[in-house]
Amino acid sequence: MFLYKLTLTPSGRPLLFPGEVEVVLMEATDLEFPSGAGGDAANPREKLTAGVLTLTTARILWTSTSAGAYFVPLPAMRHHEELSRGMFRTKSPRVRFEVFVTPDVHPAVQPTSATGHVVAAFRGRAGCDPLVASLPGILAQRAWTRLPPTVWLTSPPPTSSTTNGTNAVTTTTNNSSNHNSSTAQQPQPPSEETATFFRASDAGVAGILRRQERDSAAADRDLSEAFADLNALKEKASAMVSLASKLKAAVARSEGGADDKRATEDVHGWLLSLGIDSPVTKESAGALYHQQLSRQLADFLLVPPTGDKSSHGAPLTAAGGMLSLVDAWCIYNRARGTALVSPEDVRKACELWPKLGIPIVLRTFSSGSLAVVSGDFDDDVVDAKLLVLMASDDVESARSTRPLEEAIRLARHAGGLRSVGVTEAARVLGTSLELAREHLLCAESRGWLCRDDGGSGLRFSYNFFRDL
Amino acid sequence: MAAFLYPPFYAYPPYFTLQPVEETRAKQVQAWKALIFDFCVHHNIHTVSADDHADGTVDVLPDPSSPLFVNAAIHRALKREAKVVFLDALVAEGHGEWLEADKHRCRVFFKTLAEYVSDVRRWVDENALHGSVYTLYEMAEATEIPDEWKRLDRDVLHRIFVACQSSGVSSVFGGENGEDVGVKFL
Amino acid sequence: MRRRPGISGLQRQQAQREAFSDLGSVAASARQLAMEEQLQSFQSQLAQFALKHRADINSQPAFRASFHKMCRDIGVDPLASNKGFWSEALGLGEFYFDLGVQVAEACMASRLETGGLIPLDVLVRRVNKRRGTAVSGEVSIDDVKQAIGSLGKLGSTFKLEMVSGKYLVRSVPGELSPDAAAAIDVAAQDPDGAISEDSLAQRFGGGVGGLVRAREALESFMRDGMAWVDGQREPGKYWYYLPASSEKWSEVL
């Protein structure tokens, strides 16, 4: 199957349609063409290697430094499936896409009788999970139907030779009247071909934006118009805010009925869109977005990344069952790469876990710091490890899990006043310095340890006083 | 040879005092350990003294204008206790060896002994030099001996071949009564 | 936005009027339709604004600051969610959340040297160094402050503190006691950001009482990893260098 060429900006980034949003970025992805050859019609190959696959709200993009840049429109997507790994676990995860194709084997944006295939092989850390998780939702949203109608423009593909100009005009008008219907009713032009690519003037809009950004950065830009526009925006925004606040109050009064659940979700969604705070309450689960994020985040934290031989497992498990919320936010955003989530989004997502029955808890320490903790985390296990560390400096021995009573006996028996600092505790517990410190302070407040003021930092030793 | 570029911490006075707080000291040790190593590699120095010397100098180095443990510009110098701690860290990593039990001089290895032994083994195999014999003096001139080894201090080279002996890669003999040390590659 | 079943033009106008007058008495579906239409209209206006001025927001720190002030004035937080209109239209998420991650990482990288308390200016310098010469260029102090405000939503770990008119960034849980703040202030008078027990004791009124307070304050800093000792500045005495008190060491720390 052949793909459409993707237009890039001068800096090599994909040129997106107005309103098109990148959702998921998958590095180290190859495209394989089961039929033997595909990709660029002018230069067909068996596979395209080492590229970045991006899922947007309208297309699947594939870019690389040396093999070109291509895309498949999402409306052409008929079916996708994750291929089973087969006998050899070393094979990278693969997803096969079945795509409606035109007679000249390019993706067709309306259902056709013929289909083609392309397989994406994911060699990156995250395997295929982020894509497979996001794709159904993106396909269901059909966001491409809200794009400007002229985005999908019919015009012959570069390799064929048919009439073009007139086709473009007719199809444009037809498109604009049909773009809101649920099935893309794009009539075929008189000639057979139904290739599509991004129109030059649309490229112009985005191109203008980027040029503007460069010019803006240049010295002495007159911002008076910008400030005037900002004031105008402020007026409208203000009106929106007061309207939304009234709605928020109305919803708060009437919350409870089953009918209202969706209405409440809607209101929370609007408040979210405007940037007005809408706290999660006992009754409501807040905006749908946060519910989705809550699940996505839980999956990220608990499910080991596939296809990565060197991984130590899921992030939360690898951290011993506890991660500071700041760390969780950082690594989640780093993993997403794009469409980053705000701290508040993540905080709200974490707060929804009990409601959604997800076995992770957001825990507050007395210092006010927050951590995400897996449901099976046991403080006694931590205390036991610390107590064993008080008995001897055998780090390996301290790392192994043992019952609390045994650990107490060992610490008591050791008799010595061995003191332990934050660094050592972190090493034994396999956690960050901050969390190790919190654990030591917790153990202190539970009475196991007492502080050791030796002047060489924060240190603790076994609290013999409790035995007296 | 290009001037040695001191890292930024070298200008921070507290780095010349051994920090009592564990976490802070950990950072200090890591910084000094790296500096000592880089300094020795740059100047091709193989032994570092941990002592404060009777005549008041604290460094005994080929080039007094390029000191290691003294920063005259900020009037700070490391004391023995600190130097021992930092050199101990280098030893723990396999990049150093004390010459005395009471820690006065520390030999610095640019690669760990294990790495050198494996280098020697590979070189012997690749050049089919099993059974060949050299004295250390001969090695300095022989073209088939890698340049890297020729730049090493004679004592360090001897030490490496002794280590190789323990791994069965070579056997070392001689060295008494002014005789040169000989190495037979097995 | 969810699509609602069709509704006649008259009904729609009616709903709109009522939506603005008395929400309580209007049927829920009409109310919702009115709201969605208003939101769509606002979103269009915002999109227009974005088309014209997104570049300005991303490249002009002063305009960016005015934008944030506007949001504060009307009671919205444009960084509350990357699903918000503001973020989507203006691409704020990529800028600020990326910056937030960089700020968190820069703080973490200097934890062992600073104990988690660092002057804001030093942090901004370090973050800009990490960013290199990215298209989005250098970030301003205001930008970093925004990012820290945003990070503050992740618990009380990240916050801005002010001591004698200068901003400090705290990236570990805890609080500055008044004595600790005084110590930072005294140390800030020294070009190296250093302080001795005696000089601090003077600030606390001298005598035994002053000395005890000074010692406690300094030991507390040591325990938290926020002070380095120097035994060679003055014979027989320790001097304490507080990274929070000086910008001189931004290269080192």
TrEMBL record, chain A:
Family, as annotated: Belongs to the VPS36 family.
GO CC, one annotated term: late endosome membrane
Function: Component of the ESCRT-II complex (endosomal sorting complex required for transport II), which is required for multivesicular body (MVB) formation and sorting of endosomal cargo proteins into MVBs.
Biased segments, Low complexity type: 150-183
Top-level taxon: Eukaryota
One of the protein's GO biological processes: protein transport to vacuole involved in ubiquitin-dependent protein catabolic process via the multivesicular body sorting pathway
Xref: PROSITE patterns: GLUE
GO molecular function annotation: phosphatidylinositol-3-phosphate binding; ubiquitin binding
Keyword line: Coiled coil, Cytoplasm, Endosome, Protein transport, Transport
GLUE N-terminal domain sequence ranges: 6-151
Protein's cellular compartments: Cytoplasm; Endosome
Keyword Flavoprotein: no
Region (Disordered): 150-194
Gene3D superfamilies noted in UniProt: 6.10.140.260, Pleckstrin-homology domain (PH domain)/Phosphotyrosine-binding domain (PTB), Winged helix-like DNA-binding domain superfamily/Winged helix DNA-binding domain
Subunit structure: Component of the endosomal sorting complex required for transport II (ESCRT-II).
Name of the featured protein: Vacuolar protein-sorting-associated protein 36
InterPro entries reported in the protein's UniProt record: GLUE_dom (IPR021648), PH-like_dom_sf (IPR011993), Snf8/Vps36 (IPR040608), Vps36 (IPR037855), WH-like_DNA-bd_sf (IPR036388), WH_DNA-bd_sf (IPR036390)
Pfam families hit by this protein: EAP30
Primary localization: cytoplasm
Automatic annotation (TrEMBL), chain B:
Any one annotated GO CC term: ESCRT II complex
Keyword flag Zinc-finger: no
Example of a GO MF term: protein homodimerization activity
Pfam families found in the cross-reference section: ESCRT-II
Cited SUPFAM superfamilies: Winged helix' DNA-binding domain (SSF46785)
Keywords of the record: Protein transport, Transport
UniProt keyword Ion transport present: no
InterPro entries listed in its UniProt record: ESCRT-II_cplx_Vps25-sub, ESCRT-II_cplx_Vps25-sub_N, WH-like_DNA-bd_sf, WH_DNA-bd_sf
Protein name: Vacuolar protein-sorting-associated protein 25
Species of provenance: Pycnococcus provasolii
From TrEMBL, chain C:
Residues annotated as signal peptide: none
A GO biological-process term: protein transport to vacuole involved in ubiquitin-dependent protein catabolic process via the multivesicular body sorting pathway
GO cellular component: ESCRT II complex
The family this protein is said to belong to: Belongs to the SNF8 family.
Official protein name in the record: Vacuolar protein sorting-associated protein SNF8
